[in-house]
Amino acid sequence: GTRVLVSTGVDGLIYYWDVASGDRLLTASGSMPIQFGSDGRRLVYGTPTTWSWTEIAPPRGRSQIDCRDGGDELVRDVQFSEDGRWILVAKQAGVHVIDRRRGVKTHFTPLFGAVQARFVASTRQVIIQGRTAVHWFTFDHELGRIMSTPSRIYEPQGGQGAWLERGSVSPDKRYLDLILLDGTRECLRLDDGGVETAGRFPELAKARQVAIDGGHAVYWSARDGHMKHLNLDNGRSAGILRETGATPLFSPNGRFLLLSGLMNHQIFGVDGWTLLRSQSVRGRLSGRTPPGTWTSDSEHLALTVDRNRIALHTALDRSAKATLTTPQPNAYSVLQFS
């Protein structure tokens, strides 16, 4: 079937692209894509006051859900259930539950400072990560409700403080990897909340950006502003990957690393940390370069390269597969593959 790339920006326009041909399939307005469903046909997106979902390839309808809750309107995370019916929307004030089939909000769990919410695979549990604790709740899959009392709460031991940012879920969806402000690494088992491995890495303390994949951590050092690699298994470093800051993103298969910086994107091979290619960014995009996005098979990635163009690449190919040109400037593109 067709692989679809969606891009959007502060201009309010959303573009649907055919990755194979580079053709623009559809243009819509007034929304921002958040996440595709597991079958690649459904998309959740936001408007200034509501949240909606739509069928894509081809679009066949949508429903709108009001998720205003008294807090700010920034959405931290959106996750589908395994069967695609239920959607968790994490915001500053708490977590909304949406029934995708009926297009209605079924529940709201207040939990100020929520960072992300996830269904625990093959269980009836939902976890909500805040800045200083992880909460486990029982989820009613029939009614679409999160039980009001948490079944378990995990907090860092010894008053070590908050985590740097949202944790990374392992590819097998069994663990939540968390880095504390002081550089302590905690790996939580999602099924029972146990800490399976832990260690302290002073190099990661107060890092501005951290990406973790297995035993590898890439971070933006708060000490000297460089992008560096750290082996979490033995504490050794591969040295400086980049002398200026960037947003790190590992490919889903863990073989590649993308660093999206102010002036260019760089792709590294994790084996040996070899720079494979660099894609320049044409002109400063108002002080930041949006990070790229990978396909689930790690074969392709999409990069914003200037105010009107998105380049599609393969990680090992020296040339871009296609260049997508938007009719209007779209510098803050949020990119998502189906």
Entry keywords:
single chain; 338 residues; mainly beta; 5-stranded antiparallel β-sheet; 4-stranded antiparallel β-sheet; globular
Give the topology:
Elements: E1 4-8, E2 13-18, E3 24-29, E4 32-36, E5 42-46, E6 51-55, E7 62-65, E8 75-80, E9 86-91, E10 94-99, E11 104-110, E12 116-119, E13 125-129, E14 134-140, E15 145-146, E16 152-154, E17 168-169, E18 175-179, E19 184-189, E20 195-200, E21 210-213, E22 216-220, E23 227-231, E24 237-242, E25 246-250, E26 256-261, E27 264-269, E28 274-280, E29 293-294, E30 300-304, E31 309-314, E32 322-325, E33 334-337
Antiparallel strand pairs: 1-2, 1-33, 2-3, 4-5, 5-6, 6-7, 8-9, 9-10, 10-11, 12-13, 13-14, 14-15, 14-16, 17-18, 18-19, 19-20, 21-22, 22-23, 23-24, 25-26, 26-27, 27-28, 29-30, 30-31, 31-32
Please tell me about this protein's structure.
0% of the residues lie in helices and 49% in strands. It is mostly beta strands and 338 residues long. The strands form eight sheets. Strands 12, 13, 14, 15 and 16 form a five-stranded antiparallel sheet that branches. Strand 23 and strand 24 form a beta hairpin. The termini are close together.
